[in-house]
Amino acid sequence: MHVRADFAAIVGHTPLLRLRRASAATGCEILGKAEWMNPGGSIKDRTALGLLLDAERKGLVQPGTTLVEGTAGNTGIGLALVGASRGYSSIIVAPNSQSAEKLDALRLTGAEVRLVPPAKFADPNHYVHVSERLVAALNAKAPGSAWFANQFDNTANRDYHAATTAVEIWEQTDGAVDGFVCSAGTGGTLAGVADGLKARKPDVRIALSDPAGSALANFVNHGELKAEGNSISEGIGSSRVTANFKDAKIDTAYSIPDTESVPLLHALLLEEGLCLGGSSGVNIAGAIRLAHELGPGHVVVTILADAGTRYAKKLFNPLFLRSQGLPVPAWLERAFPAGVSAPPVA
Ligand code: PMP
User: Fold this and answer.
1) Is there a contact between 344 and 100 (Cβ–Cβ < 8 Å)?
2) SS3 content of the chain, % helix, strand, coil (to 5)
3) CA 180 to CA 196: how far, in whole Å?
4) How many C-beta atoms lie closer than 10 Å to residue 122's C-beta?
5) Residue numbers in the chain where pLDDT is lower than 70
6) What is the pLDDT of residues 57-76, one digit of tens each?
7) What is the pTM of this model?
8) Which of 232, 234, 279, 284 to mutate for ligand 1's pocket (most ligand atoms within 8 Å of CB)?
9) Ligand 1 site: residues with CB under 6 angstroms?
């Protein structure tokens, strides 16, 4: 029998998939890590597992500890699921602005979900601060009863990507990877993969693919946190430098508008059978830019972070797309002439 023991044993080791259209357009091999194939549906299963394993090793959690996290959704889904499989319960704090599908997936984990209105990081009502206060309150009542995963500033996140995601990319490309590019939410994926790849090949080129409205691209290129525009993508972009992002070995950054990333997602579904989420579109747009910069014949790797089904009422909804001034391909118009069911359009 060939059997895996549990949830943790099927996190990671994702396929590296050739993106045909992007490769043909650039003369490079553009390859995507199929992270939506993780058991909880996103790359953040890795983060959740990495943070929890680190806490277990350090004796910060024991059976019965409540896991607490503030998250745009995917880390909460991963943490609640891996936690359930290891005997922990979870409380997840998330902004109510996230996609209905993602929040439903979060509720289905059995975690206690606390939704808060979206707020700037400087606001004490930002979901990260709310979750941190919640942990403090639980531990004041019953010392040691709650653990804060703290994905943004707990660098076990970055270290886990260096030890797993980067090593997989290195081995799957037989060391032929010339460039790596992805977006940053916590920055754990980008900084960790950069650490892992640069340790093996110092001249590998690392790029940040940043959605419009995030301050990180300008920070990487000009040293100043400055944002312009906005994006419908979720879980990526930032107004601050997290501990995971700090001193990441990044060579350059691209600011990607939705008008560049979203049409890539529509074409991928129609031509390559891949239904991917918004951050994957931003990542592939960045991979195409990096490939053009490197020139034909190079190998560029990026992250296919989660599936488009998690955002169908936005990304594949003609009404929503039009409300955002984004192009609607003819096949999508034919498939959903009146929009995807119950479109969240004001
Ligand atoms: N893509 C998606 C879909 C995500 O949920 C996240 C994390 N919120 C990211 C990308 C960013 O990954 P990281 O936190 O490692 O920077």
Assistant:
1) yes
2) 45, 15, 40
3) 11
4) 9
5) 341-346
6) 999 999 899 999 999 899 99
7) 0.97
8) 279
9) 42, 44, 72, 74, 183-190, 235-236, 277, 279, 305-306
